[in-house]
Amino acid sequence: MSPAYRIGGFLAAMAVVFALSFGVGRVVDPVDSPPPAPPTHQQHAE
Question: Which superkingdom heads the taxonomic lineage of this protein's source (predicted)?
């Protein structure tokens, strides 16, 4: 197996892993979801 095929296979495998992780990330926590409301903090005068 030539080095070119090894490098190409490695890059293809990395692309598949990236695509799978990106897909799982989109299912678990979509990027286009609205951000959560910021917590309210009330200051007390002392």
Answer: Bacteria
